[in-house]
DNA sequence: AACCTCACG
DNA sequence: GACGTACGTGAGGTTC
């Protein structure tokens, strides 16, 4: 043995498994459900298939002695087969009601056994199994596919066999012959001809398995058969085959399993691990599988008692039980009972019902609590009378009507709830709890400690799916909650929650708390299991109260300044409009790209018109600038008009409408779970895109002001992304430049273009700056050329030169791409996983997108992590320093504060110190700060 | 609701 | 050889 070539499995680093067991989880659950008598868990959930699954897994581990094992599932929804054959599996009836909740439970069971639970959107379990089976086979392993599905029989070889776990029967070539009358490698052709009514595979009419086998036996394979169909003696059969040749080919495509699915999980990761007895036992106990309990104890140890169904089980996934368990709380005594219960158990789900999505103006209407899955209560506090409900009763004050439903006085309920919600010994769980925290803060309650199921879901799953409660409930609990619209209606007839009758309000509100608690039990254990504890516990969870506080404070915006700007913009727009109409020779809507395109490229026949993929003329700023450079005046004026129009509608006018009349301030809402890379987003209004780049736009910032006697402080990280790049990509030359405090763009320019920093042409520096940014975005020659307005060839040369100067960049990029390709995600310095979609797409363009995203994500995401660390630490540091300075806004690399005038300088010292020490990299972090009366001045 | 355009980091 | 790209967002206006 002289080398360890990969072709020799025995000497390569991780030797391949001898036996790989792939369990068709989706196939099993259907068969087990029909084969086993009904069973229910203590809370009434049907669990017979789950029980069958657990016993099967126990038995398989014993009997097959696998080295590697995984359970593979179908995903909901369509697969790629529907792309070319819409009717595929279209006639399947929906699964029986008792089976539905078991889909989620069986995945939980898989995890409880510490086995990989594998599924991939757009692919069926069969394709994943095919892919893994062929991979394992290629490594020389024996494969056992646990399934009796005939669709998998095409995979059988001398290394791959199937096992029917219900009948305890092995399926090899002989059994395939029995079923299809042919060898496994001909199964596809047989199925293509015979079709399959269950899966809605058409096949050739009039040909069944028998005939198909006979034909394939005679002609060898499907293609030869279809080619030589004319030779068939029986006229009917001959005709059918010629007529339906295409149908046969489509059928073949449908039944052929995909063996090159871009799987995310590696076969190596399927190596069999022992389950954690605690986890497994609590799962089994909570579902009432008594007979299994002792077997599991005997095999794996552990001592969870059966009589502990309320133990916060891991992967516990109860579904909805009786609504009767939801309680309407209308007197203090019952409320105190619920508070005592929550205090005793130490965890409580909390949800508030209000009259508005705007937490700063919403009226508190009620609070719901849940202490254990299946229970819940609703405490109405601000519901109005039945008379007012849906009526036209504008005259009376409904709150004082005689018919006001019985409810605890708001102030009294707050008094009773406050100690619970502030008790450091009781965990409060919420879905988007930031909203409730703001509402409750207005009633003097500071909720802590807390967990947020929305944030948990985001940390675990990124933006691969949404994190709204309805979506999470459907995904994890297989349950569709009552919709808000079902209770309050929608559109014009929508009512506010205070008008909802109490019985309906109870069903809806208590259910929300109940579901939140269930989701928490499901998601929280995954944080540790999936190694996200640091990201969740040190970054995203502690950020929630920080954001809530920032949103509560808001920022003062001077309506008068906005109004004056708006009027100024309006006048100039009107005059531009006249000029442009004259130039065009006819009036048109300047805001309509469609009409503008007509004027420019049809009527005036200006050159260089390009169309978008929907066939519309492109009239973006870059196009208009191009035309302007050719000496055309209309585009110049139109660009001016567009700028003013944007500023007026989006900023002066819309922003003014967001000023809260009570506070005179604007309260944005930060999205903590919207951005793939871990950044925050800002909405209603978006305060992260207030103009600054243009002189006109910058004026908007003069309207963001401090209270009298106060100053605004703006502190921003200098070049944080490039510094992070220098650190993670270990680029020595870049590190040195940062350590020496050089102007990084000038330093780059000097190295790339070989010119001295002294007296550098600003254009040269600009080019280097564009390259520096381009690198962070996953540079391409096309993109850089576009950005700089230079030939692509020149851009390419720059990039080459850059790679020469900063070796390490290329390695970083290659490694980021390779990691993303292998895992489907990349990771930041702080352990946040960022899912990269499209990285394994067969479409080259989508794949390139993924590759650029893979390069950018660790940088952008790492910077986001760092400023989050700073944001968590700064408020405490200010308090510790005895300062009244408050953090108001975050704009990705910038933090805005409002400070009493006389402490502003002191505050800057504290802020900069915290920001610069938020992470310790191999390059210094620098935060620069400014003070001013407005945001424009502070920057 | 989709599309275009444009504001920010 | 053509495709059509810089990374990440949110929002307003027009059009269908």
Automatic annotation (TrEMBL):
- Catalytic reactions on record: DNA(n) + a 2'-deoxyribonucleoside 5'-triphosphate = DNA(n+1) + diphosphate
- By its UniProt entry, which SMART domains does this protein fall under? 35EXOc, 53EXOc, HhH2, POLAc
**Presence of keyword Cytoplasm:** no
By its UniProt entry, which InterPro entries does this protein fall under?
Answer: 3'-5'_exonuclease_dom, 5-3_exonucl_a-hlix_arch_N, 5-3_exonuclease, 5-3_exonuclease_C_sf, DNA-dir_DNA_pol_A_CS, DNA-dir_DNA_pol_A_palm_dom, DNA/RNA_pol_sf, DNA_polI_H3TH
Q: Give the 5'-3' exonuclease domain ranges.
A: 18-273
Protein EC: 2.7.7.7
Q: Where does the DNA-directed DNA polymerase family A palm domain start and stop, copy by copy?
A: 697-903
Q: What class of enzyme is it?
A: transferase
Q: Which UniProt keywords apply?
A: DNA damage, DNA repair, DNA replication, DNA-binding, DNA-directed DNA polymerase, Exonuclease, Hydrolase, Nuclease, Nucleotidyltransferase, Transferase
**GO-annotated molecular function:** 3'-5' exonuclease activity; 5'-3' exonuclease activity; DNA binding; DNA-directed DNA polymerase activity
Name the Gene Ontology biological process terms.
DNA-templated DNA replication; double-strand break repair
Q: Which Pfam family is one of this chain's hits?
A: DNA_pol_A_exo1
The residues covered by the 3'-5' exonuclease domain are: 326-528
Which NCBIfam families did the record assign?
Answer: pola, PRK05755.1
Quaternary structure, per UniProt, is: Single-chain monomer with multiple functions.
Q: What does this protein do?
A: In addition to polymerase activity, this DNA polymerase exhibits 3'-5' and 5'-3' exonuclease activity.
Q: Which family does it belong to?
A: Belongs to the DNA polymerase type-A family.
Name-wise, this protein is DNA polymerase I
């Amino acid at each position: 043995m002289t080398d360890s070539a990969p072709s020799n499995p025995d000497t390569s680093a991780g030797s391949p498994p001898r036996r790989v067991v792939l369990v068709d989880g989706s196939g099993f659950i259907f068969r087990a459900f029909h084969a086993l008598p009904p069973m229910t868990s203590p809370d009434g959930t049907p669990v017979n298939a789950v029980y069958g699954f657990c016993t099967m897994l126990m038995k398989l581990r014993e009997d097959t002695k696998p080295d590697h094992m995984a359970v593979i599932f179908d995903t909901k929804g369509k697969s790629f087969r529907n792309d070319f054959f819409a009717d595929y599996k279209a006639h399947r009836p929906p699964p029986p009601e008792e089976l539905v909740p078991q889909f989620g439970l069986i995945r939980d069971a898989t995890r409880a056994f510490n086995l990989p639970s594998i599924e991939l959107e757009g692919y069926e379990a069969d394709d994943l199994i095919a892919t893994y089976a062929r991979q394992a086979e290629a490594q020389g392993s024996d494969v056992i596919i646990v399934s009796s599905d005939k669709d998998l029989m095409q995979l059988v070889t001398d290394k791959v066999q199937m096992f029917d776990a219900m009948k305890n029967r092995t399926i090899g070539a002989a059994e395939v012959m029995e079923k299809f009358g042919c060898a496994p490698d001909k199964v596809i052709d047989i199925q293509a001809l015979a079709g399959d009514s269950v899966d809605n595979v058409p096949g050739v009419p009039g040909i069944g398995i028998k005939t198909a086998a006979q034909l394939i036996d005679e002609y060898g394979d499907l293609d030869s058969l279809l080619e030589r169909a004319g030779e068939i003696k029986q006229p009917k059969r001959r005709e059918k085959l010629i007529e339906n040749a295409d149908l046969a080919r489509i059928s073949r495509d449908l039944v052929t399993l995909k063996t090159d699915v871009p799987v995310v999980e590696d076969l190596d990761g399927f190596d069999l691990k022992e389950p954690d007895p605690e986890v497994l036992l609590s799962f089994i106990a909570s579902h009432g599988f008594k007979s299994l309990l002792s077997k599991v104890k005997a095999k794996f140890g552990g001592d969870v008692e059966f009589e502990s169904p309320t133990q916060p089980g891991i992967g516990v996934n109860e579904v909805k039980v009786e609504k009767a368990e939801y309680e309407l709380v209308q007197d203090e005594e019952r409320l105190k009972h619920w508070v005592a219960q929550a205090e005793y158990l130490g965890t409580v789900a909390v949800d508030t019902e209000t009259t508005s999505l705007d937490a700063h103006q919403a009226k508190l209407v009620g609070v719901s609590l849940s202490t254990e899955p299946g229970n819940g209560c609703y405490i109405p506090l601000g519901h109005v009378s039945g008379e007012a409900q849906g009526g036209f009763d504008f005259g009376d004050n409904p709150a004082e009507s005689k018919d006001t439903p019985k409810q605890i006085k708001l102030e009294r309920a707050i008094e009773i709830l406050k100690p619970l919600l502030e008790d450091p010994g009781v965990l409060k769980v919420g879905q988007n709890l930031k909203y409730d925290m703001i509402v409750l803060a207005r009633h003097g309650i500071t909720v802590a400690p807390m967990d947020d199921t929305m944030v948990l879901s985001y940390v675990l799953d990124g933006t691969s799916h949404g994190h709204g409660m309805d979506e999470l409930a459907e995904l994890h609990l297989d349950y569709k909650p009552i919709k808000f619209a079902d209770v309050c209606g929608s559109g014009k007839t929508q009512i506010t929650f205070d008008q909802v009758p109490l019985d309906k309000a109870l069903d809806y509100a208590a259910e929300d708390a109940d579901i939140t608690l269930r989701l928490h039990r499901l998601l929280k254990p995954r944080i540790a299991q999936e190694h996200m504890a640091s990201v969740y516990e040190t970054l995203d969870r502690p950020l929630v109260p920080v954001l809530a506080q920032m949103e509560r404070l808001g920022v003062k915006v001077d309506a008068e300044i906005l109004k004056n700007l708006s009027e100024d913009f309006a006048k100039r727009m009107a005059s531009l409009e006249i000029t442009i109409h004259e130039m065009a020779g006819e009036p048109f809507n300047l805001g309509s790209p469609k009409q503008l395109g007509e004027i420019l490229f049809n009527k005036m026949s200006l050159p260089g018109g390009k169309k978008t993929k929907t066939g519309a003329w492109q009239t973006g700023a870059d196009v208009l600038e191009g035309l302007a450079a050719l000496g055309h005046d209309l585009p110049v004026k139109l660009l001016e008009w567009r700028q003013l129009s944007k500023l007026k509608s989006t900023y002066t006018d819309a922003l003014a409408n967001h000023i809260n009349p009570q506070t005179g301030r604007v309260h944005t809402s930060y999205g903590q779970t919207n951005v793939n890379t871990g950044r925050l987003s800002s909405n209603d209004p978006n305060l992260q895109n207030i103009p600054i780049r243009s002189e006109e736009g910058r004026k908007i910032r003069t309207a963001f002001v401090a209270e009298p006697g106060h100053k605004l402080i703006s502190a921003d990280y200098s070049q944080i992304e490039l510094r992070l790049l220098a650190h993670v990509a270990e680029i020595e030359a870049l590190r040195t430049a940062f350590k020496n405090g050089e102007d990084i763009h000038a330093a780059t320019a000097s190295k790339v273009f070989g010119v001295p920093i002294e007296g550098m042409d600003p254009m040269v520096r600009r080019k280097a700056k564009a390259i520096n940014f381009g690198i962070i975005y996953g540079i391409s020659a096309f993109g850089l050329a576009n950005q700089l307005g230079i030939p692509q060839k020149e851009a390419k040369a720059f990039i080459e030169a850059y790679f020469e100067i900063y070796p390490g960049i290329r390695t970083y990029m290659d490694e980021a791409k390779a990691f993303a390709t292998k895992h489907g995600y990349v990771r930041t310095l702080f352990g946040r996983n960022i899912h990269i979609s499209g990285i394994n797409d067969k479409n080259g363009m989508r794949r390139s997108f993924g590759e650029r995203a893979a390069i950018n994500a660790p940088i952008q995401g790492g910077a986001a992590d760092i400023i989050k660390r700073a944001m968590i630490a700064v408020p405490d540091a200010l308090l510790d320093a005895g300062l009244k300075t408050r953090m108001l806004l975050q704009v990705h690399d910038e933090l805005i504060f409002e400070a009493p005038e006389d402490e502003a300088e002191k505050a800057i010292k504290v802020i900069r110190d915290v920001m610069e020490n938020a992470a310790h990299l191999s390059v210094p972090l620098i935060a620069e700060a400014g003070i001013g009366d407005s945001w424009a001045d502070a920057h």
